[in-house]
Amino acid sequence: MNDSVDEALVVLSGGQDSTTCLYWAIDRFGEDCVSSVTFDYGQRHRIELDCARRIAAEAGVSNVCLPIDTFAALGGDALTDASIAVGEAAGTGTELPATFVAGRNLIFLTFAAAYAYRHDIRHLVTGVAQTDYSGYPDCREETMAALQNAIRLGMDSDVEIHTPLMHRSKKETVELAVRLGALDAMALTHTCYNGQQPPCGRCAACELRAKGFAAAGVPDPLLDAQ
Predict the structure, then answer these.
(1) C-beta separation of 50 from 23 below 8 A
(2) pLDDT tens string 66-107
(3) What are phi and psi of 149, to 5 degrees?
(4) How far is CA 55 from each of CA 112, 138, 167, 181, 197, rounded to the nearest angstrom?
(5) Which domains does the chain have, with CATH numbers?
(6) Most buried residue, 101, 143, 147, 206, by CB count within 10 Å?
């Protein structure tokens, strides 16, 4: 890998956090040095794939969608299995919610790193956060540090995983989006675990998003766009 290349690849889900990270990357690396990748992992809510494409276009960056449908074959979570309700427990002997897709962030970033390796991109950007989150173990800082080390060893690269939201509350994430000029793109995002437009307003994702915008004193552009 060419160490002189200073480009960034953003894992773009089409949601609030990854969209904020996209604009963070543009601010840090420059629009011409940022691209995005979205994963079609067999998710029930196909709308987020279209949202990611539209958000990337709004931001002026490229977007590639990679198919990795093994998660749907594995099942066992509410985001890929229609028979599991969003509000259920995961049923794995833990207290994790049913919306936890085991291994998702690990796989996403590994595939993103492989894509970045082939395109001489050194920086990966992801919207994971261990503040104001649903208890997902693959969102923790120690997980990201261990994964970065494993990727560096396994690909003999100097890849760097950036987590701009890791220690930010949802309020602080909204404030960051405002500073970065990302609010127009927020109207294109999808967060609702129930896959509804307008969003249901009842699921954990909707409630957390609403709490963040309310605490920041900023109207949610997604609701205004409905």
Answers:
(1) no
(2) 999 888 788 888 777 777 877 654 445 557 878 788 889 999
(3) -65, -45
(4) 18, 25, 24, 13, 16
(5) 8-224 (3.40.50.620)
(6) 101
